[in-house]
Amino acid sequence: MILVDTALRQRAAEGRPVRFALFGAGFMGRGIANQVCRYTPGMELVVICNRTVDAAVQAFSLAGVDDVTLVTTAAELEDVVRRGGHAVTDDPAVVCGSESVEVVVEATGHVEYGARVTTAAIEAGKHVVLMNAELDATVGPLLKERADVAGVVVTGCDGDQPGVQLNLLRFVEQLGLTPRVAGNIKGLQDRYRNPTTQAGFAKQWGQTPHMVTSFADGTKISFEQAIVANATGMTVAQRGMIGLEHRGPVDDMVGMYDLDRLRELGGVVEYVVGGLPSPGVYVFAEATDRTQAHYLDYGKLGKGPLYSFYVPYHLTVFEVPLSVARVALFGDTVIAPAAGPVVDVVAAAKVDSRAGQVLDGLGWYMTYGLCETYDVVRRDNLLPMGLAEGCTLRRDVVKDQVLTYDDVVLPTDTLVHRLRAEQDARFAPGGTDR
């Protein structure tokens, strides 16, 4: 953070702002636009690409920007940038063809659309900051490999809980401690929530009901913790994670895990329902020697063997500009897969469903996501949650049944299915290359 703000001030003084593009003008996109346009010197949001152009114009308007130009070619976008203006478009090729855009932020939360714009950006030599844990958990290792080949960075973001966990993990590891648990703090979890039950909450905050549902039914946190696992090599202790309920400070939870099991597994990703501070993240780590333990006790972290570290918030749109700067100015990755997949997210039936029905999307009525090890997913032919939308059921399924590829007919026209097939061919179970 200290390096980032200093470097951005320097870019502002030199008249060389970090220029980036934003895919998505929804709840998160509007917040990012406001934060950058009003409060982030040394950085410019030059174009918003959204399938509905009016929403992109509105995002700029809410951020105090009224002089907005609709562009249909990269050349038109370059003209807007040269005169210091702002642009909107519905064509990702306009963004990817721009020489001025250094970084793109993918903030749609849609797996298929996200796959299309992310692969296009990588091929065009653009760095990518993902606010799309769903895409990252489904095909992130392959996207990371493609980005490496292209000489660009693809990364998750600061502000979302996975990025906050990785920042905290890096801090803890820099202290010489060994992380054993990386956790996410939730206020509520109910696998059977749906857009109807969540409509009121969504309206209150200006969000879409299905996105709010993915938070409530555990799908979102499954994707988030899967990408933490893939970035660290940590795993899950069981399908769906343990998910303790604890109505109090996470500091009080250090004795609630089996430390020998944590050591055996090499660390786990987890979550707690009801823990404090909410909605933060936590890392439980182990000291390496008695001297460390003595000084941790002196620092009021207790007598171990596990020590609690936490961040009491994740500020999403406030922090995403930091990720853009980290990537553009330092080539620094916030969170990305370390190698092949370690943990995946599989689809489970939210309701009894009949053969012939087409599965709806993330956070809708028919499915919810559960973390599972990639080894088990491959062994049992389980259906990744990120691929479930648009699949047609071959047979009846019952509530809470975990779906397999044999249960469905896959759509034939989606990029993300092709990418996932390539990823599965590329990486063997165990997170290794073939």
Write structural notes for this entry.
Strand 9, helix 12 (259-265) and strand 10 (268-273) form a beta-alpha-beta unit. Helices cover 39% and strands 19% of the residues. With 434 residues, it is of the alpha/beta class. It is globular, with a radius of gyration of 22 Å. The protein has helices spanning 2-13, 27-39, 53-62, 74-82, 92-96, 111-123, 133-150, 161-174, 199-205, 209-216, 219-232, 259-265, 290-298, 320-330, 374-380, 415-426, and strands at residues 18-23, 43-49, 68-70, 86-89, 103-106, 127-130, 154-156, 178-186, 244-245, 268-273, 281-286, 306-311, 343-349, 367-373, 392-393, 408-409, 427-428, 432-433. It contains 16 helices and 18 strands. The mean pLDDT is 96. Helix 7 (133-150) packs across helix 16 (415-426). 51% of the residues are buried. It folds into three domains: 2-157 and 317-330, 3-Layer(aba) Sandwich (Rossmann fold), CATH 3.40.50; 161-316, no CATH class; 343-426, Antifreeze-like/N-acetylneuraminic acid synthase C-terminal domain (Type Iii Antifreeze Protein Isoform Hplc 12, Alpha-Beta Complex), CATH 3.90.1210. It has a seven-stranded parallel β-sheet, sandwiched between helices.
Task: Write a short abstract of this structure.
With 434 residues, the protein is α/β, with parallel strands linked by helices. It has 16 helices and 18 strands.
